[in-house]
Amino acid sequence: MDFLKELTGSHSIKNICVLSGAGISKESGLKTFRDQNGLWENHDIYEVASPLAFKNNPTLVYEFYNQRRRQLLSDEVTPNAAHIKLGELEASGEYTVNIITQNVDNLHESGGSKNVYHMHGELLKARCIKTGRVYQWLDDLTGESRCECCHTKGNLRPDIVWFGEVPHHLDEIQQILLDCDLFISIGTSGLVYPAANFVTMAKSAGAYCLEINPHPTNNAQLFDYTIDKTATEGVIKIVENLLHIS
Ligand code: APR
């Protein structure tokens, strides 16, 4: 059965925009932000993910992200079927596929996707607070770490967009949303802006808007259709349908 054709009718699909959130990486063993009553790995998220937190307690913030980085680089965390299927969809060349992710992990890239926009930064990067230069960073980051640009201790911070900071790639993201004809939101609670508003932008530009989430979200009513399944189940269904496998 052509599941998507039934949903979208005569709507033609060539240009696909995926918005992913923490839920897509849950089946890879990474915790989401809000599933544990606002506690992220036993911390209040504002305590570890804000410029004020970094100013008041840099050691805690460095260590928090060091633990996340070590976990991401361990053998335990690998891309799941949702990441891999999205990589296959892009590689098929049948569609233009852009992934806007709120996630700071690298699992979309490990799953084979190339067009990935990390709007909230990347765990495997560090940024100099004086020059803005960004470095690939696989080791622990501390107040003793030095950047190659100014060689001064304490100038490097995780390249993560914290609460109150401006997300990355907003100009490119706007264009992607204007150009897409299928928008798929996967594993995000729809509570954090501007990402929560992307469905409205895509919809206004004429896209068919799908959501994959096993639980009700804050902006569910804005989507044309919700697949209330996990990311792996939902993505396999959609991608196999788009690639005419099922
Ligand atoms: N598959 C798909 N979705 C899932 C799964 C799963 N297996 N398990 C849980 N989810 C859903 C939850 O139902 C929830 O809606 O994933 C969502 C996770 O929501 P949040 O924890 O709020 O994560 P996210 O939406 O990515 O958060 C947005 O908030 O703290 C900031 O910067 C941080 O990027 C983050 C942003």
Automatic annotation (TrEMBL):
Which enzyme class? transferase
Which reaction equation describes what this protein catalyses? N(6)-acetyl-L-lysyl-[protein] + NAD(+) + H2O = 2''-O-acetyl-ADP-D-ribose + nicotinamide + L-lysyl-[protein]; N(6)-succinyl-L-lysyl-[protein] + NAD(+) + H2O = 2''-O-succinyl-ADP-D-ribose + nicotinamide + L-lysyl-[protein]
Which residues are recorded as binding substrate? Answer: Y65, R68
- Write out the residues that bind Zn(2+): C128, C147
Q: What is its EC number?
A: 2.3.1.286
- Keywords noted in UniProt: Cytoplasm, Metal-binding, NAD, Transferase, Zinc
Q: Where is the Deacetylase sirtuin-type domain?
A: 1-245
Q: Which InterPro entries match?
A: DHS-like_NAD/FAD-binding_dom (IPR029035), NAD-dep_sirtuin_deacylases (IPR050134), Sirtuin (IPR003000), Sirtuin_cat_small_dom_sf (IPR026591), Sirtuin_class_III (IPR027546), Ssirtuin_cat_dom (IPR026590)
**Pfam families, per database record:** SIR2 (PF02146)
Which residues hold NAD(+)?
21-40, 102-105, 187-189, 213-215, 231
Q: Where in the cell is it found?
A: Cytoplasm
- How does the cofactor attach, per the note? Binds 1 zinc ion per subunit.
The active site of this protein is located at H120
Q: Which cofactor does it need?
A: Zn(2+)
Cite the HAMAP family for this sequence: Sirtuin_ClassIII
**What free text does the record give on domains?**
2 residues (Tyr-65 and Arg-68) present in a large hydrophobic pocket are probably involved in substrate specificity. They are important for desuccinylation activity, but dispensable for deacetylation activity.
PANTHER family to which the protein is assigned, alphabetical: NAD-DEPENDENT PROTEIN DEACYLASE, NAD-DEPENDENT PROTEIN DEACYLASE SIRTUIN-5, MITOCHONDRIAL-RELATED
> What is the purpose of this protein?
NAD-dependent lysine deacetylase and desuccinylase that specifically removes acetyl and succinyl groups on target proteins. Modulates the activities of several proteins which are inactive in their acylated form.
**Family the entry assigns:** Belongs to the sirtuin family. Class III subfamily.
For this entry, the protein name equals: NAD-dependent protein deacylase
What's the name of its gene? Answer: cobB
